[in-house]
Amino acid sequence: MSHPSERPQLTPQFCFNQTALRDFLRISRGTIDDSITQNLNTLLTPAQRGFDPSSTSSRSVSAPSRSIPAPQCDSFKQRVLFPSWAVRSDVLDYCAGVATSPDPDDPGSVLRQIEDSKARERVVDERLDPYSGRYFPKEARTESLSMLMRNERAVEKIIRSRTWSVVGERCGISTETAEEAFDKWRAGRQE
After folding, report:
1. Which residue ranges does the record annotate as region Disordered (predicted)?
2. Nearest to 82 by CA among 155, 175, 187
């Protein structure tokens, strides 16, 4: 059985290092969600009934049952799937908080202030050059992180929905959405 994703050390530096942040999310999603079919296949015990020699005397048109017994499914969800989702949710929540907080250590802050003051002092005659009034300030790293968090939350929602539909096919259809099941699991852990 797979193991849940390891929780990285949550620091603002981790969040601002977008390569490390994306790598963590990519690896976590790859080991659990992207390979959900393989992870669920490991829960099946091959040849539970043993080999039946009479099975070769006739051709079977129907596919063998791919449903997984409920205890194995529940164990997988409780021990692997939901904990991995929880780690990713914690990382996304933490980094979203970092993105909305003031950033006194932003190395580009001084440079942006200088560019802004130069842009304000510039004399613009748009009759001579209609493009001279254009000024595109560089975005702060918190703005960049905020945009990344919005994108990653959207990706996470899609991935969870897809994973949950595969789990539903193999473990039995659930009336809950992925978010409802995850929220219920999380609430049960905190009690």
Report:
1. 46-69
2. 187
Residue 1 belongs to some domain of the structure: yes
Report how far residue 7's alpha carbon sits from residue 5's, in angstroms, rounded to the nearest whole number.
6
Number of domains in the chain: 1
Residue 120 lies in a domain: no
CB 18 within 8 A of CB 148: yes
pLDDT digits (tens, 9 = 90+) for 12-55: 889 989 999 999 999 999 988 888 888 888 877 665 556 666 66
**Running DSSP on this structure, what letter comes out for residue 126?**
T
Q: Is the dihedral of CA 70, 71, 75, 78 positive or negative?
A: positive
Range of the domain at 93: 1-41+67-101+135-191
- CA distances in angstroms from 18 to 105, 129, 153, listed in the order given: 16, 38, 14
Residue 126 lies in a domain: no
Half-sphere exposure of 183 (CA within 13 A, CB side): 5
Where does residue 36 rank: exposed (0-12), middle (13-18), buried (19+ CB within 10 A)? buried
